[in-house]
Amino acid sequence: MPKRLFVAIDLPESTRQLIADLDPKVRGVRWIAAAQMHLTLGFFGDILEDVDLALREKLRAIEFGAFFLPITGIGTFPSKGPPKIIWIGVGKAHPHLFQIHKRIQEAALAVGIEPELRPWHPHITIARCRDVSAQSLRKFLQSNVDLDAGMVRVDTFHLYSSKLTPSGPIHTRELSVHCRG
Questions:
Q1: Euclidean distance between CA atoms 99 and 104, whole angstroms
Q2: CA dihedral of 99, 74, 84, 130, whole degrees rounded to 10
Q3: Cβ–Cβ under 8 Å, residues 7 and 59
Q4: Among candidates 69, 71, 75, which has minimal Cα distance to 144?
Q5: What pLDDT does residue 92 have?
Q6: In the predicted model, what is the mean pLDDT of residues 16-31?
Q7: Mean pLDDT of all residues in the chain?
Q8: What pLDDT sits at residue 43?
Q9: How many CB atoms lie within 10 A of CB 109?
Q10: What pLDDT score does 39 carry?
């Protein structure tokens, strides 16, 4: 039976709580549960067991050093028109972050998983919007455009499975890969 898999960096509890407390309580905006907030490094969709096992092997072999990542600024996808996603940023093109992302994509490709063709824009999804006008979020976005939620130390990434349920996805940690040294 296939598993829906993705690789992500978790956030410290204090950072997740700070982000959760930003919820503007706007109608149509569904804030992500603090425990579910993460930075996705790769989403793979439904993966068969043999490919899952091969992917785990490749992910375990990835070496990286620990680094710090700024959690700053808030925006929406799409950037024009009605928002679908509210996100918080992770600084500008951090080289260590992009290196891990690249290695994860290479690991996936090596086991036959099709690569994501869209450019990668690292972010943390903090809310999903349904029938929300850009106007109704303008004050919230303006007051948080320069938000600085501090720095987080990245020393581990995780492989998760995700089960979709009517009340939202349930993420289960399947594997953790720690930095070297």
A1: 9
A2: 140
A3: yes
A4: 75
A5: 81
A6: 94
A7: 93
A8: 94
A9: 12
A10: 97
H or E element in which residue 6 lies: strand 3-10
Residue identified by tokens 């972050």 is 97
Cα 96 to chain centroid distance, Å, stands at 16
- Both tokens of 59, joined, read 């992910």
**pLDDT, tens only, 46-71:** 999 999 999 999 999 999 999 999 99
Q: Which two structure tokens, joined as six digits, stand for 50?
A: 């043999």
CB 134 within 8 A of CB 82: yes
Q: Categorize the per-residue pLDDT at 147 as very low, low, confident or very high, splitting at 50, 70 and 90.
A: very high
What does the domain layout of the chain look like in residue ranges?
A: 3-178
> Alpha helices of the chain — where are they, by DSSP H?
13-20, 49-60, 95-110, 134-144
Start-end of H helices in 63-133: 95-110
The answer to whether 40 and 8 have CB atoms below 8 angstroms apart is yes
3-178 under CATH 3.90.1140.10, yes or no: yes
- DSSP-based three-state secondary structure for 163: strand
